[in-house]
Design brief:
Elements (H helix, E strand, L loop, with lengths): L6 E2 L3 E5 L1 H4 L5 H11 L2 H4 L12 H14 L1 E7 L5 E9 L5 E8 L8 H15 L4 E6 L4 H9 L3 E5 L5 E6 L4
Parallel strand pairs: 5-6
Antiparallel strand pairs: 1-2, 2-3, 3-4, 4-5, 6-8, 7-8
């Protein structure tokens, strides 16, 4: 189990989405924001489980499935607090490895937010005893692969389902 992720970078605040989902007053607004975030252009390179029709009635099941599979954190813009994206983590191939994934609203593409997030999660992971980050990117998503390489990841082959695997040895402590 991955511990709750909470950290800040220069422009981003990262915190568990559970805080909003478990708050009956905040949940409806947050779910509406998620529907907007999960636009087809944002999710097109993600695994099938992340694809959704974006209807309010579908969200509870989709959220429950994401919660069962991963730890998800909100990535909010520090100035103004807008939801910029999501950070997704789960245990990696070994006890000291963490699989990371992320998505951002198109409003945040091309502005360095993904690079900033990945650097932030690497720092958080090192402080929490992880020695390696792992990630996967479909070959069509060159922008995400470029972010991983820019932040120090190296290509580590191809997974059984044809996804390019990347890894970053970060040490721990």
């Amino acid at each position: 189990m991955v511990p709750p992720i909470r950290f800040a970078t220069e422009r981003l605040d990262v915190s568990p989405w559970d805080e909003l989902l478990d708050d009956a007053g905040a949940r409806p607004g947050f779910v509406a924001t998620l529907i907007d975030l999960l636009a087809p252009e944002v999710t097109r390179h993600l695994p099938p489980a992340w694809q959704i029709e974006r209807k309010p009635e579908d969200m509870d099941g989709w959220i429950a499935a994401r919660r069962a599979a991963s730890a998800v954190a909100c990535v909010n813009e520090r100035q103004g607090g807008a939801l910029a994206g999501l950070l997704v983590t789960r245990p990696g191939s070994e006890d000291d490895a963490l699989i990371v994934g992320y998505l951002f609203s198109t409003d945040y593409w091309g502005r360095g937010y993904a690079t900033e997030l990945v650097r932030g999660v690497a720092g958080w992971a090192a402080r929490n005893g992880y020695a390696r980050l792992e990630a996967g990117v479909v070959s069509e998503n060159a922008a995400s692969a470029a972010v991983l390489v820019k932040t120090g990841f190296t290509r580590a082959g191809v997974t059984g389902d044809g996804v390019d695997a990347y890894r970053l040895d970060i040490g721990s402590g």
